[in-house]
Specification:
CATH class of one domain: Mainly Alpha
Distance between the termini: 60 Å
Strand content: under 5%
Helix content: over 70%
Number of strands: 0
Largest sheet: none
CATH architecture of one domain: Up-down Bundle
GO biological process, one term: glycerophospholipid biosynthetic process
EC number: 2.5.1.42
GO cellular component, one term: plasma membrane
Cofactor: Mg(2+)
GO molecular function: geranylgeranylglycerol-phosphate geranylgeranyltransferase activity; magnesium ion binding
Radius of gyration: 19 Å
């Protein structure tokens, strides 16, 4: 492998789209928490910690999953020999170190969340991934906690941020179960006992649908509690419809369904931004 291919492989190990998305969600959490963000350095540090922490988790996951990926995803950097397992491990540790450096500049609650998340990322593949449903819950918490982390970075973890965390976590549980259905053949070959393998693909999809329905039903809570006004509902409505469509699509095509769900979750996050903008505009009106 050439140096260029190795550098490209290292970049791919981060899964940059996922890492950047997580950093953006952290910034959204900070914005939803405080309205007009008056601590840009803290928000940037939190986003940086999230980017490198997420990237490190992705790299360490690829390191431990290299045999599974050789079957399920042979184009990943390690299976195609762009990056050696040893280099991937050291790369993950370096990214973890950068995440810690950024996190240590933040308030104590944000530091606590960051350290807990790093431990969860490290233990996910070796401890939780093969347990039916447990790995899905860990990933869901990690996804939703980006909003908590953003709020904690600006000293504000209010009701709106907690609701956003809960909705993101529930939606992510559903999406992760659907992804497990998509990967069931390779996971079974490697001896993993994921939820679809333990109870069957169809029952697992129904559980995913039930969890997603719970998220949809709870989504108007910030409006009902008076935290956000009508602008929140204007954007939330299409997001809810899209989430429902993603869940329905999953029964016919799990791969397509989970991709739709990812986009729908971003639209739902946007509704919280619009909700906070509406509150801010009212305060200045």
């Amino acid at each position: 492998m050439t140096a260029v291919e190795t550098v490209r492989g290292l970049w791919e190990l981060l899964r940059p789209v996922n890492a950047i998305s997580a950093a953006v969600l952290t910034a959204i959490g900070a914005f939803v928490a405080s309205g007009i963000v008056d601590a840009p350095v803290a928000v940037a540090a939190a986003a940086g910690a999230t980017f490198f922490g997420t990237g490190a988790g992705n790299a360490i996951n690829d390191y431990f999953d290299r045999e599974i990926d050789a079957h399920n995803k042979p184009d990943r950097p390690i299976p195609r020999n762009a990056v050696s397992p040893r280099l991937a491990l050291w790369y993950a540790l370096a990214c973890f170190g950068l995440a810690v450096v950024f996190a240590l500049t933040l308030p104590w609650l944000a530091i606590a969340i960051a350290l807990f998340n790093l431990l969860a990322l490290v233990s996910y593949t070796q401890v939780f991934k093969g347990l039916p449903g447990a790995g899905n819950v860990v990933v869901a918490y990690l996804g939703g906690s980006t909003f908590l982390f953003g709020g904690a970075a600006v000293h504000t973890v209010g009701p709106a941020v907690v609701v956003l965390f809960a909705l993101a976590a529930l939606s992510t549980i559903s999406r992760e179960i659907i992804k497990d259905v998509e990967d069931v053949e390779g996971d079974r070959a490697e001896g993993l006992n994921t939820l679809p393998i333990a109870i069957g693909e169809r029952p697992a999809l129904w559980i995913a649908t039930g969890v997603l329905t719970l998220a949809i039903v709870a989504s108007p809570a910030p409006y009902l509690t008076g935290d956000f006004g009508p602008p929140y509902l204007v954007v939330l409505g299409p997001a809810v419809v899209y989430l429902g469509y993603a869940g329905w699509t999953s029964f016919r095509d799990p791969s397509r369904g989970q991709r739709h769900m990812k986009y729908a979750m971003f639209l739902a996050a946007l509704s919280f931004v619009v909700g906070r903008l509406g509150v801010t505009a009212s305060a200045f009106g």
